[in-house]
Task: structure prediction
Amino acid sequence: MFKCNYCDKECKNENSLRNHSRLCKNNPNRSLPNIIGFSNKLILECKHCKKEYSKSNIKRHEESCRINENNLKQCPVCEIKFFGNKVTCSYSCANTYFRTGKDNGNWKDDRYRTTCFLYHKKECIICGENKIVTVHHMNENHDDNRPENLIPLCPTHHQYFHSTFRNEVEPKILEYIEQFKLRMA
Result:
């Protein structure tokens, strides 16, 4: 039998004595395992959120704490500060940011409709229809996709331009083009 040097408890073998001595209440240098019931961990408070964490976890927590100013990003759409690894703060802002303009992965700069509605309001310049809008190439050259050549028209007024009623819409279209060129200059 082996006797503990601190409390005189008898152990069956050398291994059990070593384990007992390491955990013995009378041992001034005892090391406690990280199990429930033993409290050898140093508890520290997060300087941002005031929650308590062990010394081994506090640094990791503070680096990723939601309240830490260094972890907040600014939404490019609404400019609200938020926490996370995303580009925008919400689905709504993501729809605005990713589904419009050149930031969209599906953006095709050479598509005439995309170019037209980037520079012109998506409504007929004659009647203001905004549900169904076509794009008219003023010089009728479909390879010329300059913004001043692309005119938004409803299907009815687009058909007017390509029919005997052209004289009813052409003056308004030419006036719109002149105003557009002045705005862009």
Notes: The chain has a mean pLDDT of 84. The chain has six helices and eight strands. Residues 1-32 form one domain. The first strand starts at residue 2 and ends at 3.
